[in-house]
Design brief:
alpha+beta; Rossmann fold; 4 domains; eight-stranded mixed beta sheet; four-stranded mixed beta sheet
């Protein structure tokens, strides 16, 4: 030890640790090490907690309250199979499935390679048409439902905008409901009045995916079947006969559900309005003229952008018309009928602006309001319930009559073509009529992709900022810090 003490080099090394440079450098190293260790521990803790924030505008990667309600009711195992090769899963689909798995212990997921397990896929291919690669199979105690890859996404263009419609949550939640209950409600589409039948393939397919069966019904030839959940009348060109009106009224008096979409092209709705008047509403003949530019599709005065009510299950989550507009084509209005039974509750669903009016002379093209025109705001869509929720007692188990009336039969057609909110209003009306609050407003979620257009000036400015200005700023700040610290 004495030999080492006499070595001047050792003493110099020992003294060097007492200098200001080493002290400041040591403190900086310790602080840097502590920060790094803290960040590592923080990341490990956050990874265990699985905390995530959905920053998308339409909450694409979050489950709706209705889906959470569905999962809370799941008390039997539900298995979801993804038909992919391992490593080829669709990230958006997997992200949503992970939300289901984290929310319910009864939901499980497994990736199945259809090429290696053809026998497994055959078990679920009832019609022997094959199951598309990338499909999901949702299986429960009451059956199974196959969701094709094209049913989970939908893309369309509107001008310079591209819309990516995410239907994943709606499809999976609907499938879970089906495999949990095994019950398929039946919707009867009234025919025989030169109507716009709901037999459009897109609508039939959509209702089938939402666990509904659609059948046609001619009230002149048969009575309303006992298994009828909802009666739909879409765009009649002729009024109901007295016999049909009586059958429909008897159906409603026994807690039936009725969805009617009509337009101004038919003048005489005496029998139909007599049925609706029993529950406090009726159609007004005429077409709505809108004089507020913010309520009109630019360059198309026949197409309106009405407001949606915020206090009803059908429209509550769809009220932001600028993000997801509802488009109506020359709708007619709906009025409340007085006097009416006090137990009837009427809710406005779709409303025009205060500057609108109902033109009774549909041949007149003038945009000026005449003395005989009905002033706005006009009720273009309404829901009626008897007895209303405010009149029903907690011990009352009698069926509740429900009616949805919309003054535009094209609402679902626009929904097929482009506008997701139109389809949401249509499907939410069906769900509310069928008393399925867990599926009401489980809406599609839209991501808007707008192309970035850059001029040469923009390109030069951004290039200077990103390539020169920002790196130079870091270099100058680092140089200043170094010059200050070298004199410590």
């Amino acid at each position: 030890m004495k030999l080492f003490k006499n070595i001047s080099g050792i003493a110099n090394i020992r003294d060097s640790f007492k200098t200001k440079h080493v002290k400041y450098g040591g403190y900086a190293a310790m602080i840097t090490l502590a920060v790094i260790i803290g960040l590592i521990l923080f990341n490990l803790m956050m990874g265990q907690l699985s905390l995530q924030i959905d920053l998308t505008q339409d909450q694409i990667f979050s489950l709706s309250e209705q889906t959470l309600h569905v999962l809370d009711q799941v008390d039997t195992p539900v298995r979801i199979y993804g038909l992919w090769r391992p490593g080829e899963e669709v990230l958006e689909v997997m992200y949503v499935i992970d939300l289901y798995l984290s929310r319910s212990r009864n939901v499980s997921f497994q990736v199945v390679d259809p090429n290696r397990n053809p026998g497994f896929v055959t078990r679920y291919d009832r019609d022997r048409r094959g199951i598309e690669y990338g499909s999901l199979i949702v299986e429960g105690s009451m059956g199974f439902r196959v969701i094709g890859p094209s049913e989970m996404f939908d893309s369309f263009n509107w001008g310079m905008f591209e819309f990516q419609d995410y239907l994943i949550e709606r499809r999976i939640s609907s499938a879970i409901l089906f495999v949990g209950t095994g019950v398929t409600p039946v919707i009867y589409d009234l025919i025989g009045h030169e109507i716009m039948s709901m037999g459009h393939p897109e609508i039939i397919s959509l209702l089938d995916r939402e666990n509904y069966e659609v059948r046609e019904l001619n009230l002149l030839l048969s009575d309303i079947p006992d298994d009828a959940s909802i009666i739909v009348l879409c765009g009649p060109q002729r009024d109901l006969s007295s016999v049909e009106a009586e059958k429909l009224l008897n159906f409603l008096e026994n807690g039936g559900r009725f969805f009617v979409m009509a337009n101004y092209q038919i003048q005489n709705l005496t029998n139909l309005n007599s049925v609706l008047a029993s529950y406090g509403i009726s159609f007004d003949y005429g077409r709505t003229i809108e004089n507020d530019p913010s309520y009109i599709v630019p360059s198309f005065y026949e197409m309106l952008l009405p407001d949606l009510a915020m206090d009803h299950d059908i429209t509550r989550n769809l009220s932001d018309k600028w993000n997801t507009p509802v488009i109506l084509y020359e709708p007619m209005s709906i009025s409340e009928v007085l006097p009416r039974r006090r137990e009837v509750e009427i809710s406005s669903l779709i409303v025009s602006s205060p500057r609108s009016f109902l033109r009774s002379d549909v041949e007149l093209l003038s945009l000026e309001r005449l003395p005989d025109d009905l002033p706005g705001p006009l009720m273009l869509g309404a829901a009626a319930a008897f007895p209303g929720d405010n009149w029903r007692l907690s011990t009352d188990t009698s069926p509740q009559t429900r009616i949805v009336a919309i003054g535009d039969p094209y609402i679902w057609i626009f929904g097929i073509d482009a506008f997701g909110a139109n389809l949401d209003v249509f499907m939410n009306s069906i769900a509310w009529l069928d008393d399925r609050p867990e599926t009401t407003t489980i809406r599609s979620k839209i991501r808007v992709m707008q192309p970035m257009t850059m001029t040469m000036v923009h390109f030069i400015v951004y290039s200077v900022i990103l390539i020169a200005a920002i790196p130079l700023a870091f270099f100058v700040s680092g140089l200043i810090v170094w010059l200050k610290r070298r004199h410590l």
